[in-house]
Amino acid sequence: MSLASQAALAELARPKGGPIAHTYSIVARDPVTGDMGVAVQSHAMSVGGIVSWGEAGVGVVATQAGVDPGYGGKGLDLMRKGVSAPQALKQLVARDPNPEGRQVAMLDARGRVSAYTGPKAIAAAGHYVGRDYSVQANIMVNEKVWTAMAAAFESAQGDLADRLLAALDGAQAAGGDIRGKMSAALLVVRAKSSGRPWWGGDRLFDVRVEEHADPLVELRRLLRLQRAGNYSNRGDELMTGKKVDEALAVYRKAMELAPEVLELQFWYAATLVVVDKEAEATPLFRDLFSKEPFWLEVLRRLPAAGLFPSDPAIMKRMATLAPTP
């Protein structure tokens, strides 16, 4: 058979409405906080851009296999209007002219959850719906993958993001995608909307690995960095509320969680000076300037922005901490 004939057959076999994204994923809700999340790993590139969908106070969706991304937006729209996740999924599958190759899971803010695996999803394919979660997979090495995901999720410790990652690890340990691995994504949204739909507001975590030899390792690294960013954002909120000691504690957590991100050390040290703790800031600035000297110039620009004391004596002392050229 010619390459052209093979391509034509492949196009005929492709479910209409979107690209192919064979994969494994999980949608879940934390019953304590109400936060909701979706996590995914696939051999397809940039899987997070089409598979994972979520909105604070509404729900989360994973749409995969012969993907119709419309299940994401339409599913959230129905749940936003009060339709339960199971009913929303049922309605969308019924309207789909080519549902046989789809695999979709939906979960709403009340924890109602449902999944669908079409009869033409490539084996091994299936799903398992548990309390406040669903795991689903297709084109896997074997039929143990989604049950391994469920077991890993149910036994995992930590917050929802940690448990979502554990489910992905469980899938990979059971064999994972028969083709290997390439990309991954994790999204966690709040139980209720704050009106700020971005990361740092309604999106507690939103990390994607577009292409990597070991996407789950990279996803975990990115999650750690974003977690540090969350601490830093919380520190800013506490400083605004004049809760200085609490703010300094979370700024320090951010710095310690991601020591390679020197900017976190910079802002922690700068804040220490602002609150008259220059002695504590001195070793931090000395270390920082020795690694990346440009931070001294950044510091010099802060007084004009109202973010550092406008005191020449303080700035002169800071300058002495930088290494001599």
Tags for this model:
disordered N terminus; 5-stranded antiparallel sheet; 45% helix; Serine Threonine Protein Phosphatase 5, Tetratricopeptide repeat; 325 residues; 12 helices; 11 strands; single chain; Glutamine Phosphoribosylpyrophosphate, subunit 1, domain 1
In summary, what is this structure?
By secondary structure, the chain is of the alpha+beta class. The chain has helices spanning 3-13, 48-51, 70-80, 85-95, 145-155, 160-173, 215-240, 244-257, 262-274, 278-291, 294-301, 312-319, and strands spanning 20-21, 23-29, 36-42, 52-55, 59-66, 102-108, 113-117, 126-130, 133-137, 183-189, 203-209. The strands form 2 sheets. A 6-stranded antiparallel β-sheet has the order 8-9-2-3-10-11.
Present the secondary structure layout.
Layout: H1 3-13, E1 20-21, E2 23-29, E3 36-42, H2 48-51, E4 52-55, E5 59-66, H3 70-80, H4 85-95, E6 102-108, E7 113-117, E8 126-130, E9 133-137, H5 145-155, H6 160-173, E10 183-189, E11 203-209, H7 215-240, H8 244-257, H9 262-274, H10 278-291, H11 294-301, H12 312-319
Antiparallel strand pairs: 1-5, 2-3, 2-9, 3-10, 4-5, 5-6, 6-7, 8-9, 10-11
Span between termini = 69 Å
The CATH top-level class label of the largest domain: Alpha Beta
Number of strands: 11
The second-level CATH architecture of the largest domain is 4-Layer Sandwich
Tell me the number of structural domains.
2
Largest sheet: 6 strands, antiparallel
Order of helices and strands: HEEEHEEHHEEEEHHEEHHHHHH
Structural class: alpha+beta
Low-confidence stretches: 1-17
Note the total helix count.
12
Q: Determine the mean pLDDT.
A: 93
- Envelope shape: elongated
